[in-house]
Amino acid sequence: xxxxxxxxxxxxxxxxxxxxxxxxxxxxxxxxxxxxxxxxxxxxxxxxxxxxxxxxxxxxxxxxxxxxxxxxxxxxxxxxxxxxxxxxxxxxxxxxxxxxxxxxxxxxxxxxx
Amino acid sequence: xxxxxxxxxxxxxxxxxxxxxxxxxxxxxxxxxxxxxxxxxxxxxxxxxxxxxxxxxxxxxxxxxxxxxxxxxxxxxxxxxxxxxxxxxxxxxxxxxxxxxxxxxxxxxxxxxxxxxxxxxxxxxxxxxxxxxxxxxxxxxxxxxxxxxxxxxxxxxxxxxxxxxxxxxxxxxx
Lengths: 113, 174
Prior knowledge:
The complex is a heterodimer of chains A (113) and B (174). With 113 residues, chain A is an all-alpha fold.
């Protein structure tokens, strides 16, 4: 199992890839790709991120609804990131590549366990 | 109509003539200078035309039309601007003398205000302004090539499919 941060980062990566499908200035495209690179670490390797496919319309609608919760840190009510984490299975159902990427990210930890 | 002492004592000869005035005919020069000596705000054109020696037997209506034509002549307009600036410069000493007279008279009702005006110019209040400068940075051809190379590199690294380029007249858009 990977951390909550890694889980919602996978969803963010799929949203970023959706954004990259649209028309935009070259500088902005590079900025989005740089964001993808910043998402990588020892768990979410470039190979894992490359497995993620762009989020579809329904998934994106769900993502936008979650974004309305904001980034509150009071810990009492769920915020944007906790919803992305808690509803990862819903996002994965809409975009199976998320589950495959999740499994790939978990594989090294499973092997060592 | 009453006129200020400074303006009345400043004769046309005291105002140096510049290149714009030199480009005019003698009558036109007299017309421009007469505009500054006109006693009234209204009818100053007719006064100046008469003073310059145009149409001594013409009707007031004709003189008015002539003044209108002269006022719209670019050469005359340039000369009026030039003479106005010269008058302002030449009036400087009169203004300074007037200020000095008020400063010498502590009972003058504007004494305090004039002191303030003079002090503001002698030792002006200093203020600090923060100026925000905004500019536009344009990417050179070398930077653009690097950017495109970096985009291709990151796209292949993260398996990102880019949208197909627009086709304009059967050629790839730049």
